[in-house]
Amino acid sequence: MATKSWASGTRVAKSDHSKPKAGELAYGKGDILTIVETGTGKQHYKARHNTTGEEGLVAATNVREREAICVDPSLSLMPWFHGKISGPEAVSKLLPVEDGLFLVRESIRHHGDYVLCVSYSSQVIHYRVIYQDSKLTIDNTQYFYNLLDMIEFYSKHKGAIVTKLLKPKEKEGTKSAELELSKTGWLLDIRELTLGGSIGEGEFGAVYEGDYMGQKVAVKNIKCDVTAQAFLEETTVMTKLQHKNLVRLLGVILHNGLHIVTELMAKGNLVNFLRTRGRHIIEDVCEGMEYLESKRLVHRDLAARNILVSNEGVAKVSDFGLTKLDCKASDNAKLPVKWTAPEALKKEKFSTRSDVWSYGVLLWEMFSYGRQPYPKMSLKEVKELVEQGYRMEAPEECPPSVYALMRCCWEAEPRKRPSFQKLQEKLERELTKQQPWENADPGLNPRSSVSACFRL
Ligand code: ADP
User: Fold this and answer.
1) Is 133 a catalytic site residue?
2) Is the CB–ligand 1 distance for residue 8 below 6 Å?
3) How far is CA 49 from the centre of its chain?
């Protein structure tokens, strides 16, 4: 059965194939072909010609991978942008006039505005592009977030101007990135992209999940002209690098600024991954401790180092070395001071509630990714300060609800701390409030908002 898969992506023809048999695709050497289906035999692919749009079979041996784009500072998303030049200079650049030849310049008279200069019918027409309310407009009807969008629009529609923009007049020393991307096969087709929900917030714009010809992809959209240009350079570097442990670039789309399309990493970023897994570990540990509590057993050494994780990701409480029936301690010297409740340290009074104290410290360890509790403090200092009411601060980016839970576990008065049964109920109740996707598979949550992932 043929599989619809874009995983094999775009290919480049190695040689001419100008006399195709029935069902085959015609192409020339260097033409860019997009694989639409890979057969099981892998001898032939069903491919689409990126220029002619025709579809047909191509021999797998007659295509090769795309080549990397050279990192070249002259590569520009806006080769038609000439900066601060005067009207007459723009005219001289657009000579000999050719219908639809255009450039954009910065207005000298109106600071912050631009001028679109277009050749038409043996003359050059200058359209003032007004910048107002963070948007650009020529006719106060059609508004654009940036020049890229504006040029894209007037290349497809005549709108209020005299002709569609047909050919950019490139500034000396610049090369059209669009042309280069298209020639090398890195330019993807917006029509093949279906955008889904947002999966992250980058510094320069949102990241969405999507589908590109059957493949799940992540799409970063950069709207600002200048930032898009900076990202173009990052992207050209990515065209050179292919490794199983580097996120793979699938290509870019020039529409509404720049869309960078990469493979989708379904489990999202590591911070989220650790935090969502953490949620389950916390639950597992709490359940184990609730069981000990029901047996009236006290662990006395509950800490992250004593939680082991199975192949299936189940966390189990281990090291029962100190476990005793609810009673007094016998060997104070061996106590894990930073994890032990003050009454246990001072009066050797161990109980399930002193285990709850340790559980709070374990939560702190989880949320600081295994940091040593009370960083930089000696055991003596910890003993004294905690006795006086000092408590650790929340780990960086720890959701307030989790920190609140830690603080409950660190109540000075053991009776005021919740039991494991109560903690368990609280966790269970709060976790069912999660979004359906958060319960389905904790690792599958690719959201970047940490607090959204761990609500207690
Ligand atoms: P920026 O570099 O603009 O700050 P990032 O590339 O760091 O943006 O992306 C922001 C967030 O979007 C990431 O932390 C992650 O949650 C999500 N994200 C980005 N790329 C992918 C991807 N390929 N697959 C899944 N999630 C992604």
Assistant:
1) no
2) no
3) 31
- Give CA–CA dist 314/452, Å, rounded: 23
Q: What is the pLDDT of residue 355?
A: 96
Tell me the two tokens of residue 99: 């219908």
The per-residue pLDDT for range 54-66, each reduced to its tens digit, is 999 999 899 998 9
pLDDT given at position 147: 92
Mutate to test the pocket of ligand 1, among 199, 234, 267, 272 (most ligand atoms within 8 A of CB): 199
β-partners of residue 427 are: none
**What distance in Å separates the CA atoms of residue 361 and residue 365, rounded to the nearest whole number?**
6
Task: Enumerate residue ranges in the chain where pLDDT < 50.
Answer: 1-7, 329, 434-456
Give 210 Cα–ligand 1 centroid separation in angstroms.
13
Q: What is the pLDDT of residue 331?
A: 54
What domains appear along the chain, each with residue ranges and CATH number? 3-64 (2.30.30.40), 81-170 (3.30.505.10), 184-263 (3.30.200.20), 270-451 (1.10.510.10)
Cβ-contact 199, 211 below 8 angstroms: no
Q: What is the pTM of this model?
A: 0.73
* Phi, psi for residue 198 in degrees, rounded to 5: -75, 135
Residue 200 CA, ligand 1 centroid: distance in Å: 6
